[in-house]
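Bug report (template v2)

What were you trying to do?
Predict the complex of my protein with zinc ion.

What happened?
Run completed; filing so the output is reviewed.

Input:
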Amino acid sequence: MMHCLRFPARTLLLAVLSGLAQAQPAAEIKVMERQTLNAGDLRAHYEPPAASTHELKLTLVYFSWGSWQRDEILKATGAMAGLLGQCGVRLAQVELVRVDAPQQYHYFHTPVSRQLARVLQPGTPTVYFVTDTRQQPAFDAEAVGRGNSRTRPELADSVWVTRVTPEFGIALAHELVHVLMDSGGHVEEPGNLMREDTTPGNTRLSAAQCARLRDVGARNGLLRTISE
Ligand SMILES: [Zn+2]
């Protein structure tokens, strides 16, 4: 008898609590600024490739009073885009989204990061510039493609870059290639961007890697084919 009484009460309480947990982020997370920049606006940090077949539009999310400054973000993004130029991919536009949110959202951690993404509904691919990660294992930077987002669909096609990441631009390019290819695979080839270690010398992509990222990226709506 007691169980009969307690179960519904407990279920109701849980429902109320989970309702609160879902209602709370919308109130806590506020978009303070959305700024759209085209390739010309990025000229200080980015040289588009001479020839390109595909274009990329990126959403960049950062925090007011966070650990990333706007200029550092644009510099890393420009360096990243420069590396994608070797595949004939041109950065056409970025949308910078500045968010006010409590500290917990400044860290990559699937439960809270899902809430953040659910509130923001950003365009994809999305790069989140966070302080650090609370994921285990803890990676300096992490990519969430289609294949590893089935249990967390809000995070599909996103990259999470922490402040402790070495070589921001190269790391960002490496993670974005994971997203565009929808593959977590690494290679051994010397000097390749998709080696496991991020170093200044690891920047090249093979013709096959370029073809795959263009094909899969375009198929998943993350790149647009330029018809000229
Ligand atoms: Zn990797």
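What did the reviewer find?
The first helix runs from residue 2 to 28. Strands lie at 30-38, 54-63, 89-100, 107-108, 126-129, 132-133, 141-144, 158-161, 223-225.
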